[in-house]
Amino acid sequence: MISGWLGMPLAAALAVGGFCGVVRAGDDAFDLSLSELLDQEVTTVSRKSERLGDAPSAIYVLTADELSRLGVTSLPEALRHVPGVQVAALGRNRWAVSIRGFNGRFANRLQVLVDGRSVYSPLFSGTFWEALDIPLGDIERIEVVRGPGGAQWGANAVNGVINIITRHSRATRGTELRAATGKVSRSLVDLRHGGDWGERGSYRITLRSRDDRAGDEVGGEAGNDSWRSTRLGLRADRDGIGGGSLTVVADAYRADSGDHWLLPDPSASGFVNDLRAVQRNEGASMSLRWSRQLAARESVDVQADLAYDGLDMPGVIVSRRTTASTEAQYRFAAASRHDIVLGGGLRHTYDRLDDTPVFSAIRADVATTEVSAFINDEISLIAERLSLVAGLKYEHHEWTGDAWQPSLRLAWRPSSRHTVWLAASRAVRTPARVERDIDFTLYGLPPFTGANPTAFYGLGTVTHAPDLRAEVANAYELGYRGQLGPGLLFDAAAFSQHYRRMRSVSYAGFLPGFVGAPGLVPDYLKLFYPVDFVSSAMTSGLELSLEWQPTPRVRLSADYTRLHVGLRSSGDAVRDQGFELYAMGVPREQFGLRSSFKVADGRYVNFDWRHVGALANGLVPAYEALDVHLAWRLSKRTELGVTLRNLLDDHHLEFVPDYVPSAGMELGRSVLIGLSMGF
């Protein structure tokens, strides 16, 4: 039952409408019909523009129109609405986001791009979503590819690619203000201004400020997951530069996110140091992209990126990283049957990690260089009916040497409304720095447990890998995408992925530990667990989604994901137990229902219901959630909104901390009220 404090806002919202997302269309229909969705442009599958309906891959596009109607305020919240993506909140400022398994706060088999620049962190092999607080109103679309993308995007695109593409600055002229407040957010403000850059260019500047309250821990204790972030962004576009177009994207950010760490400490009561700290992420980046269209199927693209990222949690971790990269590609037609994209890139990273009682680096300063080259050839076997896409990417990394990532994709199109495709591909994951040359002490292990068979309390230290190897995954996929009837789209994909040389840890021995002066009997044991790359796993599953638009004012959708994870025993009980807890941290099934209604001129409502199965490792039970977003367009550029979340229960748990020993956080009901105004 919905509690009393929420009943009045819900009733009022149903009467008037929802949250801040200024409607971009000039009428009350959806920006794109379902038929038009198949015709929209995507670029992530083959590194070139192609129809979504023709793409030989499991891809979903979250459009700007959808983002404006969902009432979400962060990227992980938006990705919950993408079929086949596993999103779990560890609190109000932490998320675990993955595709096809192996979820965690730093899910390390997912490549995330923003306008072509990788935001994947090589420190932990993952994405700091709390630092990637991009205003959603600046996003044109989010292309999500499920399955390997190594042949196109290189290492770490093992299970999928999330490509966030921002809007061209000419589409954001003028001034827009979005402001919201509610139970979770004290304040959330986006201010944007755009204008002309001479006669052939345009620009925009966007400022975001967020101040979110902390929630409650499991058991009801006040949590420490507050989130404060500020981000300043710039995009400028200009035509007529060297016969092509130039795009400049830059940003600077700072994010302070609280956490409640339970660090092992033999000298403390209960062997636990209760640390309530604030993690600070700060940084800046700039990207320059030059593109020139030479002919219908001939173009040149060059991009250069420079980024700085800092991470600071006093007494725990202090890291600084600078990354410079450049990449170029050339697309051309060869004969009448080949559409080829080839290119290469260079990436240099300088990373510094200061020693703390928790993290200790073998070397404080590390510099790495990576060289890559790729080719992607779409071969027309039968004109407009049957095509084969062959791709290959070569990368040389200083840590792991050469890596070859091939891909073959066959697409059969019996008509322009139906595509059947199958694929075989290989992708690799480059080890993180924390696996290469960093030792960290994070785990307190009670006596007589699987990882600590001794009679003493254990202080667990994970030590860097003596033999660094790249993880390899081979994937096989089969899919269909098509229009079954007027206003009815269906998408299906089945897959099997086989992994080897996966990261795990084994037990290597112990040393006696003493709190004070050494004695005959130790106060605790220092247990050592070196990282190795010997584990293997297999995943298989089915992803289904259905969208139906019975009228121009109504859109309904359903999606279902089934995932199976199989592990191969290594013969080491400690290694297998730890690897199983990690690998099984995903639900075996997910099911979602969504609906969007234009209930009247300028008024619309969205419902999102989802069922998430229990995690396969048994640590989190199944749960169901219902979110409602309602909107009332007061004028052409003014909109009032209300977003209601987690209406089905007082609180629920979605994930447990996997990388660091932190307090578990629950999510509860919330309301967010917002206003958007354009000038």
CATH hierarchy: architecture: Beta Barrel
Q: What is the rounded Rg?
A: 25 Å
Average pLDDT level: 91
- CATH-assigned fold name: Maltoporin, Chain A
Shape type: globular
**Into which percent range does the helicity of residues fall?**
under 10%
Number of domains: 1
Unreliable residue runs: 1-27
Q: Supply the number of helical segments.
A: 7
Number of strands: 38
**How far is it from the N-terminal to the C-terminal residue, by CA?**
41 Å
Report the structural category.
mainly beta
**Main β sheet profile:** 22 strands, antiparallel, barrel
What name goes with the CATH superfamily?
TonB-dependent receptor, beta-barrel domain
What is the CATH class? Mainly Beta
Strand content: over 45%
Describe the structure.
The protein is mainly β. The protein has one domain (18-678): TonB-dependent receptor, beta-barrel domain (Maltoporin, Chain A), CATH 2.40.170. The chain is 7% helix and 59% strand. The protein contains seven helices and 38 strands. The strands form five sheets. It has a 22-stranded antiparallel beta barrel. It starts with a helix and ends with a strand.
Overview features:
38 strands; 679 residues; 7 helices; Maltoporin, Chain A; disordered N terminus; 22-stranded antiparallel barrel
Short summary of the structure?
With 679 residues, the protein is mostly beta strands.
Topology:
Elements: H1 4-16, H2 34-39, E1 41-42, E2 50-51, E3 58-63, H3 64-70, H4 75-79, E4 85-89, E5 95-99, E6 110-114, E7 117-118, E8 139-146, H5 150-153, E9 160-166, E10 174-182, E11 185-196, E12 201-212, E13 216-217, E14 227-241, E15 244-264, E16 272-295, E17 298-313, E18 317-334, E19 338-354, E20 359-361, E21 365-382, E22 386-397, E23 401-415, E24 418-429, H6 433-436, E25 438-445, E26 458-463, E27 471-485, E28 488-505, E29 509-513, E30 524-551, E31 554-568, H7 573-583, E32 589-600, E33 603-612, E34 623-635, E35 638-645, E36 651-653, E37 665-668, E38 670-678
Parallel strand pairs: 6-9, 26-30
Antiparallel strand pairs: 1-2, 3-8, 4-5, 6-7, 8-9, 10-11, 10-38, 11-12, 12-14, 13-37, 14-15, 15-16, 16-17, 17-18, 18-19, 19-21, 20-25, 21-22, 22-23, 23-24, 24-27, 25-26, 27-28, 28-30, 29-30, 30-31, 31-32, 32-33, 33-34, 34-35, 35-38, 36-37
